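Incident review: delayed structure delivery

Summary: a single-chain prediction request sat in the queue longer than the usual turnaround. Root cause was a stuck worker, restarted by the on-call engineer. No data loss occurred. The affected request and its eventual output are reproduced below so the record is complete for anyone auditing the incident later.

Affected input:
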Amino acid sequence: MASLSWPSGADLSRVDVVALLLASLLLALCLFDVHRRRRDLANIPPGPTPWPLVGNLGFSLVPALFRRRFGEKPVDKNAMVLLTERAAVYGNVYSMFVGSQLMVVLNGYEAVKDALSNHPEVFSDRPDIPAITIMTKRKGIVFAPYGPVWRKQRKFCHTTLRSFGLGKLSLEPCIQQGLTTVKTELLHLSKKSGATGVDPAPLISNAVSNVICSLILGQRFHHEDRQFRSMLDLMDRGLEICVSSPAVLINVFPLLYYWPFGVFRELRRVEGDITAFLKRIIATHRETLDPDNPRDLVDMYLMEMSAQQAAGEEDSSFTEDYLFYIIGDLFIAGTDTTANSVLWVLLYMVLHPDIQDKVQTEMDEVVGTHRTPSSTDKGSLPFTEATIMEVQRMTVAVPLAIPHMASETTEFRGYTIPKGTVIVPNLWSVHRDPTVWDEPDRFNPARFLDEEGQLLRKECFIPFGIGRRVCMGEQLAKTELFLTVTSLLQAFRFRLPEGAPPPSLTGRFGLTLAPCPYAVCVSPRG
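Output delivered after worker restart:
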């Protein structure tokens, strides 16, 4: 019998195909009809007609995966772009189904602000999404349900991180230490690679991650540390698998998480490796803890655990298990988003050399070429700050935010939102909203400047979210982003390798939006 032959260039493994075929078989066998569910839900927002069982995944995601995997040209649009386009058909508040789960997408600044700022008690919860719940157990800071436990844990983490320098000038030396290494290595690698250029991503990611590591783990990792580099790669891959692979079907068929092949097995391996890495760190802290000299957040958390146990608080949520998930949240959130933002800024600078020139001219006039830039320079570098903000607007770090959930049935903008509905604040649409941004698809830093060239603060600029779930590390991210960008642009001129095609600005969507890999040629300035 002839063996099964795949199309040339296909990168879909046989086990992935088996998994998708199994999912298709389950669709055929299942009697549940989500069409009936939409009819039974009164007054929910309008939206596209769902397929039985898979809901609206059937219209876009699964066909797109097949097109891409079997060598056909994929649609050059990410999920947030497709969701934004649907608003033109169904309105800024519309509904979809993922399996039988109702999901309401909020588009545009007014709808997002109305939900998250004006109705925070209703729309600040987190949904029980199978793929996320399996891996996080609904603990930590990012994915934990809204309530007393989450508030206590978040308050403790925020207070502790501030005591170690979060949002303060005292953290700058830690950031600058990593940037010194980045600049040295960039120059070395650039000379070594010559005209082909160098990929800045590993160095940037390492430097950014080391800042949060110093706060929560009390240590830094060398950029050539294989285990640490592997952890950063695994985090990136894990986020991509969860959103942009057949693994999304776990949210419809949770048992697929345990499927022993393909991306399902890879996802479990990613989770296992990250778990082992973080638990070793907790164990080391426990064995070397000195209550009189706490080194970082982990030490402070272990001390709080002991204090609550000594006070007889048997039902305390402060446990090593909860600490593990907090570290994972902070580790990922403190690395991926900021590193991607820096990489996006560098990419826009090489694609817009005139803007790079203006930023460097402003820096030369204010900071000079020898003094290290400081966050205190922000007010004196309006065009530089406007450029960073415009890149953030164009490439929102978490374009669909982290999903929210309605904690009770409520009326919102004339529609009934049932309890348990997943709420998706489309931050991408907020920053591309033509009702608040002039020519929103055009890169134009001047939109953040007034007639006198001073910085404009716009209410509709919310790259870190809005409401009760606003990013806890917003100030840290802003400081890191500003110092990293100014330090690199003060030291170097960035350009594309000669003859290289312009990199795509579509990016790679995996919960966060990362630029596609690119290389730059780096030359010293002055």
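Verification: The beta strands are 93-98, 101-107, 404-405, 410-412, 415-417, 422-426, 492-495, 508-510, 512-514, 521-524.
Action items: add queue-age alerting; document worker restart procedure.
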